[in-house]
Design a protein that fits this description.
This is LuxR family transcriptional regulator. With about 180 residues, the protein is an alpha/beta fold. It is about 45% helix and about 10% strand. Helix 6 packs across helix 7.
Length: about 180
């Protein structure tokens, strides 16, 4: 499975927001295609720089499944849906397991609030690391493979713009909102 870190994943509220994101992605070399189904071909399609887009209804679990499968194969995703609907929550959660999900047309690709860009797995790992766990212990506690945990921590380091895991944990602790 290719989970290319730079494959864009956007969940937006309106078709106008989707158009804005798609225009920006076209300038960056992505080819837009309507719909989330990919033809039967090689599994890894990341090199083709395809971004699939379309609307997902409030209870459209089949389209969510297609979008997540396409993202796992390396495509970019721009989905128009209510992120608070059952299908929208499932989409954001499932895409978040692949990598960062941007919400809205103005969501920055880099920068902005790194803590808000973290997926739940990254937050849980950083919380455990801050409490003194090793990455291996944190991965086991979160039911993740060590490889996945290392990938999530590497993505967090990139979001925070730091080089070491220790720096990422410290940046996370400084920037997170009190609960």
């Amino acid at each position: 499975m290719n989970t290319q870190p730079d494959a864009p994943r956007h969940v937006v509220a309106t078709a106008a927001d989707a158009d804005a994101v798609l225009r920006r992605l076209a300038r960056e070399g992505w080819t837009a295609r309507v719909g989330f189904a990919l033809p039967d071909q090689a599994w890894d399609v990341a090199a083709a720089h395809i971004v699939l887009h379309g609307r997902i209804g409030d209870d459209d679990t089949e389209t969510v499944r297609l979008a997540v499968l396409a993202a796992a194969r390396g495509t970019g995703i721009v989905a128009v849906c209510d992120a608070e609907s059952p299908a929208g929550r499932a989409l954001v959660d499932d895409l978040g397991r692949i990598g960062p999900v941007r919400r809205g047309a103005d969501a920055p690709e880099t920068g902005g609030d790194p803590v808000a860009s973290l997926i739940p797995e990254q937050r849980a790992l950083l919380d455990r690391l801050a409490a003194g766990d090793t990455i291996a212990a944190a991965a086991a506690a979160e039911f993740l493979s060590l490889r996945t945990a290392n990938r999530r921590i590497a993505e967090a380091r990139t979001l925070f713009g730091v080089r070491t895991t220790r720096e990422a944990v410290l940046a996370y602790l400084r920037q997170r909102q009190p609960e």
